[in-house]
Fold each of these.
Amino acid sequence: MYLSSIDRPGTDAASPAGRSRLRGIKAVGGNVFALGTVSLLTDVSAEMVTAILPVYLVFGLSMSPLAYGTLDGVHTGATALLRLVGGYVADRVRRPKAVAGVGYAMSALAKLGLLAVGRSAGAIGFVIAADRAGKGLRTAPRDALITLSAPPHALARAFGVHRAMDSFGAFLGPLVALAVLAASGQAFDAVLVTSFCVAALGVLVLVLFVRDRHDERPPAAAPSPREAVALLRSAPVRRLLVAACLLGFAVIGDGFVYLLLQRREEVSLSSFPLLAVGTSLVYLLLAVPIGALADRIGRVPVVLGGYTALLGVYLLLTASLRGWPLVALVLVLHGLFYAATDGVLMALAGPVLPEHLRTTGLALIQTGQALAYLASSVLFGLAWQLWGPDTAVRCAAAMVVPAVAATALLLLVRPTTRSHTEETA
């Protein structure tokens, strides 16, 4: 087996003799913590709303599985092309912080938009799309800032720290929503107003505490669209993009996982948001140690292990196991899946992308994965509606195995023949 250069943790930042390498969280730098704080607050805001949306849409509005799958796909994938826009603009203007700030502000304002749309599923979908447009715009510039703020040998750990803080926000969000609902007499408007205030605080932290980062080379001419397209001529980038699409197509939405658990175990609607809390708690606990593990043993094996955990989630959802052991195992494996894949995949991408197109390259990979997820979510909703949830989950499980096998071949095995373009990429 050949461990490709996209998976080899950086060694060019080794400490001089007599100086011990910084370990743990201290190695990733203050800018990563500032970005993590922004993401923590933003995720508190987002999860206050999204943790209760599946129940509201499916039970409150009687939305069909196909309609919910389409809306869930829109939530993640329909604005995926804006990731490319955000990445390219950030590379052009060399101000990733500013581009990310616009995205965070858009998502904050979308929370107020939900106050005006009432029970209209179409209007809710439009506002969710606007919120995700903000996420699409900010994600690649934010991740580029992380890659520029952490040493190469600690990239996966840096993403682990950021994702841990992000998941802590996702952990707190549903709990804050439940507290606001209890204090306001079940007033959904109070949740939305509180959500907006928390998101606005995140934007303020970004403005005051996050610093722009650039590579240390002298500023070059702004990259042209042709140069951005030329990224696809790089063999490592192509392989990583195809792998991201394959893996994205094997994932069904979190809301579907929680709805399947609710259906099997008859979880009360008032307790439904706590399922997301369970996943976020596991993610929070495992993100940093798994990021450090990926830096030590290789990032590709950790990503593949994460998708193996996802396969376990799908198999458990069709197994005969019942009761709290089923719920606990599903949530633990679901959180493990995110801890082993979310930030580690971006750490894989960083070292193989050219400095002047780093943000665009990250956005390209995120866009491919998000569009694959959009297709997966719609198809899963259709399969549920046509054949029932059990058959739909078995189909999802069947997709994971070839996706993991193909990804292993793409990223771990050297091609036996290579074109001249690949040799010089």
Note: Residues 27-214+225-424 form a domain with the Growth Hormone; Chain: A; fold (CATH 1.20.1250.20).
Amino acid sequence: MREALFVKHNSAKWKKYDSFKSDNPDELAQFFLEITDDLAYAKTFYPKSKTTDYLNGLASRFHQTIYRNKKEKSNRFILFWKIELPMLFKQYQKPLFYSFVFFVFALLIGIFSARYDDQFVRMIMGHQYVNMTNENIAKGDPFGVYKQAPEFPMFYYIAQNNLNAAFYTFTSGIFLSVGTIIALLKNGIMLGSFEYYFFSKGLGIESILVIWIHGTLEISAIILTGGAGLVLGNSILFPKTYKRMESFKRGAKDGMKICIGLVPIWVFAAFLEGFITRHTDMPVWMSVFILGSSLLFIIWYVILYPNYLHKSLSYKTSNGRKL
């Protein structure tokens, strides 16, 4: 579409948005989504035009209206997890996907390294942990490590450790995303060597049924936090049409929101590890139900629901009209 025709088709709508004064969160979300869609189209086909500059400014105003410091409405807490966080997952689906790719790549490194180097697992997991696990395997209780501490102290320690790791993974993205990538590689290699160790002992399926009760949410949260770190780092590397400082502020704010949104997942994963994983003799169907439900939740909330929400808001805003 030529730029003149693009402007002609949308100028009336933009003028209406330019004079829009309401603080209704649903309308603001819909209009912001429409403007950002138009801005993305303009950046693609008219990157250096005045139209793109105008839409960039308009989108910035809507962004500031939505996120400016003001007295929050009573349902703001709910709207964050219902709309804002899923829309961030949609907006930053590429960094989240890249985080997944880095993690899987590291996972494979860990698996193959452990397979071809007998000492690799000890180097990654530590001699003490491997020796203890070997002793537990000899006793017929290979996952006894999850029973060593009382439930609540273990839950508290794990939750604290998880949140500290998440904060580090995110904030290290400030080093041009390199810090976050390194954190993802470390976690992926550790998981790969850890799982290969149990498979090499003939305990692969059992390890999945036990460890992934909490690991499904925990590993998902690591990957998503890595995506938030990439959002932060990429905002410095690739400012696009924004000034670098403005881009950094946006990336830091959005990345932090993703991290905050993941706190309940981190905490619940710690709860599962502290209170549930220790029951290594639970029925197989129950284990499969817990880890399967966790996986389905992540797929739905991070991928399916954000895409549905994006399409739904786009339809409501444009009444089904497509450019």
Note: The chain has two domains: 3-71, 91-311.
Amino acid sequence: MTSLLVHDKPMTLTDWLFDLVIAVGAFGFGCLQLTLAVNLLIPDEALRRLMGIDAMVPTAAAILAVAVTTLPLVLRRRCPWPTLLIVLVAWAFFQSQMGAVSMSLIGPLVAVFTVAYSCPRAEAAVAGIAAAGVVVVAATTSPLHALASLTLVQNIAFVAAAALAGYALQARQDYLRAAEERAAAAERTRETEAERRVEEERVRIAREVHDITAHSLSAVSIQAAAAERLIDRDPAAAREAIATARGTAREALEEIRAMIGVLRAGDGAAEVRPTEGTDRLGDLVAYLGGAGVEASLAQEGYDRAAVPAFVDVALFGIAREAATNIVRHAGAAHATIRLATEPGAAVLAVEDDGRGAPASGAPTSGGGHGIEGMRERVRLLGGDFEAGSLPDGGFGVRARIPLDPTREGDPHAAR
């Protein structure tokens, strides 16, 4: 019951001063109407005398009556219902018992508006109906029933307008508040989406760094082993192997530096090198050849101009990871890299004649995540990925990536 009688919403000094100004303004308007209302309603003096009505002359009692129906409005926001009841009962009493037919309804109207604005909507309807009922009762019990009847429709219309105005303003405030909440929720969603994208980018960069490191260190290890075997019987070949290892290490450092540049791009302190694409597949063939694996490349059916850059880069990354796995784990003598463009998709296949796939669930040497990394990369682009033992022996990797992921039901395309 306390919440119905008193609102616990904090009010500042400015709020109290504003309500005081409202109350004083209503009092002044009531006093003015007390003098002018009858004269304006029935301007003919002879007709007023015939009806037994004299023009109102403000007396101390009449001014006190106006004060009782308006000054309690100072409490209208802190105590909306008690304020409405006080001013409404006071107005009805003075209107019906004192014959003050020209008494202003301004106090009850402001109180009805406040209840309709600050209270639940059901209470707004109750306030409007209660005020209209009091106006009707006051009109029927007034000593000057004829004149009171002339103002009855007008007063009921004023009460309805006040209640509807308060209701409309409350509805607008609710709408604006809901709009602000939606905007705040949208902002939080954007922040969450940005964090998600940052996390995905970090995973992608980590995968790229893993690919670069594994590929390059494997090549360096092979060239170093070759140099170790040849250093006594063929120093020139050993020096060539060491130079190749040094060049591979240098390229790996440059690529890792480029990845770090992506992370530091916000500082403007790094220049990011263009990402490598399938035009570097020849380097993978050379890399496999240097590791003792006879490799061939078939890409005559690949239309690089029709393939989006991000798909081309992903294909090269998958091929590089597959080549690295062949060198590190397969023990293969031959390998084939095939690249082609199909209607709506690009297809990559890397096959070897090595030992085939490890046992189900067994980790790769060194705890790498090559196969899963390739599978995840293809999945993010809405494609299909297969990896497993071949019927004739060996191991194969096949990736099919749509050229337009949005047409293939990519789960991330709408993000």
Note: The two ends are 50 Å apart (CA to CA).
Amino acid sequence: MALSKTQLKNRIISEMQSQGATATGEHSWVNRMAEAIANAVVDEVQANAEVPVTGGSSAGQYKVQ
């Protein structure tokens, strides 16, 4: 499964709305905050996550993309 900043942003917005946040209006920071969080999470995972493959001809450590 590929990581998607847009899908993660939408999920964060949905979760924030379920907690009572309002994503619309002149003073709402929900969309900008969700985008910043999603970008940071996806970038961090793609930069640092590794998956161990413990058997077979593909054994080794592989970076998450």
Note: The chain has one domain: 5-63.
